[in-house]
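Re: weekly structure request thread

Next one in the queue (298 aa):
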Amino acid sequence: MASLIDALIYSALLGLMGFGLTLIRRTTGVWNVAHGEVVTVGSYVTLTLTASLAWNPYLTLPMAFLVCAALSGLVFLIGIEPIRARGASTILLLVVTIAISLVLTAVINIYGDYLQNVFHISAKSFLLTRLDFYLWGQPGILWISWTALAVVTGSYYTFLQYTRTGLALRAMVDQPILATVMGANARDLSLLSWCLAGGATGLAGCLLPLRFQCNPSIGTTMIATMFAVSIFGGTDKMYGPLLAGIVLGFAQIYGIDLLSSWIGPQVIPYKDLIPMIVLVLTLQFLPQGLSGFSRQRG
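Done, posted below.
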């Protein structure tokens, strides 16, 4: 039963992380490696507010959304847009996000040391399950994570499909020249998409320590899995990360349980190989992901 709960929670969190990555890729064409550090920052927002101000961890969700949205927006404005405006290739932009990721990792480690040395908060490795509540015999993180994923997916889909700004954002992807001619501001729309993506990812980071051990490198270690979720789900449809998160979340949790029962617990540190195998198979046999598969069947 514990494995099922872990798989359900992990799937929802992966869906949120992959959603943000997919939104940035779909709207601005950038694979954002620094997306992993946004997850970590969300975790540290929760740790800071719960440890220093005794907040309920779920009350930190709006703050995590705002902080991570602002961080993602700054990454775009300072690191991406000036270089993109000069016609940089997508490969160069990818390299830029790698550099930003390294800088953010260092800053997060410094902040963790500060919390630990000055305020005596266990900030280099933390788990907040003791602060969770139980509903119908199950941890609150189970219900809240899936609620957050449903709300984010539904609200963002509605925004992109049925609002004037959302339609302009989609037009920037499908017909950028026409959208510019019609008066769409590419910079502002791209900034909006990065902020929305960062906010959604911050929610995942905020919820992560309520079930899983976190540290300053948690987002860095998960970025490859986030890429697998985004690519496996397909960047054409916004519901792709939700489906991919379920598949990869269950595959990773149950796959490593099965392997450890066959081989032994020494295989547990290699659990991230499972989404990597799925990623390689996807790129070889289904390069457009699940959205491409659904189009072919349709």
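The two ends are 36 Å apart (CA to CA). The longest strand covers residues 134-135.
Next request, please.
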